[in-house]
Design goal:
- This protein has 12 helices and 7 strands.
- It has about 375 residues and is α/β, with parallel strands linked by helices.
- α2 crosses α11, α3 crosses α4 and α7 runs parallel beside α9.
- It is globular and about 60 Å long.
- InterPro entries: GDSL, GDSL_Est/Lipase, SGNH_hydro_sf, SGNH_plant_lipase-like.
Length: about 375
């Protein structure tokens, strides 16, 4: 029997090693790909709405000038002069801005990198925002993502859909309207039926069920935003007739602080009890207060007046077409009586993406997605 030459033995060994090296590279690439978030799904209110309210009958719309004056596509339904936090986080992640669920173009491959279900006026409770007539409450947004999930299954199959949802970033921003457009409204029956503690408990028990529904649909990586300092937004300052000096309305902030103080441990409990899930708490309240208390640090010259609106604090009449607006949006914290400027959103998105535990806990978005 003739033995193979040393040359061929070496060649076989070389090819074997080369093959192992290539397989190793492919495995590493696969791990990197799986670690990279595949999509971003967004739920919430006008702070994160990108245009769903354009497609319903509602008084809460932002698809007209001067909204979007600094956004590349102009007025889209975003309640700001430019980009909002989900847009900015998507850019950092390297995926497209999630389109509004109700847009007729949000179908087919367009949904594979995420969908935005948020709606101005919406809340945790179905009754929240009733004064705007039309809005898409959180429970309806959950039905919409159930529909989207079924569509993704049709496109790529169940296994790949599970992978998309498990790797995706889920942004949830709810609770503000449950106070300003429900509990605090003049004549609200909710404030008669519930004291502040009972109302807070109702919100959080309902919210926990809703977040669990997202988990059951396949979500694993959640950034849940706390409620910002609502007592400091121009609309609430001007509505407090006793407040003549632009100070925050403390009793409103007290409601918010109570809600946030209970939300954080609730998210920790969900993380502990739902296998494989991480619910990280974005501290919108303290971040907003840092802008207000240290405006110069962020380049803000004005933190009580809105940029667009009329009347005291430019908050008595909201922003609409034909209303004057400030020329330098960069030095304003608030764009209109309720919503931040793009400049504020940039600071917030940066903090949520790579900030420390004082602004996002237990991990920031970058760590959450790693």
């Amino acid at each position: 029997m003739k033995l193979p030459s040393c040359k061929w033995l070496f060649y076989g060994f070389y090819m074997c090693m080369l093959g192992s090296f290539i397989l190793g590279l492919k495995a590493a690439a696969g791990q990197m790909l799986s670690a990279r978030p595949s999509a971003c799904f967004v739920f919430g209110d006008s702070l994160v709405d990108v245009g769903n309210n354009n497609y319903i009958v509602t008084l809460a719309t932002a698809n007209h000038p001067p909204y979007g004056i600094d956004y590349p596509l102009g007025p889209t339904g975003r309640f700001s002069n430019g980009r909002i936090v989900p847009d900015l986080l998507a850019e950092k992640i390297g995926i497209a801005h999630a389109p509004p669920y109700l847009a007729p173009t949000t179908k087919g491959p367009a949904i594979l990198q995420g969908v935005n279900f948020a709606s101005a006026g919406a809340g945790i409770l179905d009754s929240t925002g009733y004064e705007y007539i039309g809005r898409i409450p959180m429970n309806q947004q959950l039905q919409y993502i159930t529909n989207t999930r079924a569509q993704i299954v049709e496109l790529v199959g169940e296994n790949q859909t599970e992978a998309i949802f498990a790797n995706a970033l889920f942004i949830v921003n709810m609770g503000s309207n449950d106070y300003v457009n429900n509990y605090l409204l003049t004549g609200s029956t909710t404030s008669i039926k519930y004291n502040p503690q009972q109302f807070q408990d109702l919100l959080l028990s309902t919210y926990a069920q809703q977040l669990t529904t997202l988990y059951n649909l396949g979500g694993r990586k959640f950034m849940v935003c706390g409620v910002g300092p609502l007592g400091c937004i121009p609309s609430q300052i001007v509505q407090n007739s006793l407040n003549q000096n632009g100070q925050c309305v403390e009793f409103i902030n007290a409601y918010v602080q109570g809600f946030n103080a209970a939300l954080r441990p609730m998210l920790q409990q969900l993380t502990a009890t739902l296998p494989g899930a991480t619910f990280t708490y974005a501290n919108s309240y303290d971040l907003g207060m840092s802008y207000i208390n240290n405006p110069g640090t962020y380049g803000f010259a004005t933190v009580d007046d809105a940029c667009c609106g009329l009347g005291p604090y430019k908050a008595l009449i909201p922003c609409f077409e034909g209303v004057s607006y400030c020329s330098d949006r960069r030095d304003h914290m608030f764009w209109d009586p309720y919503h931040p400027t793009e400049a504020s959103n940039i600071f917030s998105a940066n903090a949520f993406y790579s900030g420390g535990p004082e602004v996002i806990y237990p991990v920031n978005v970058q760590e959450l997605l790693a």
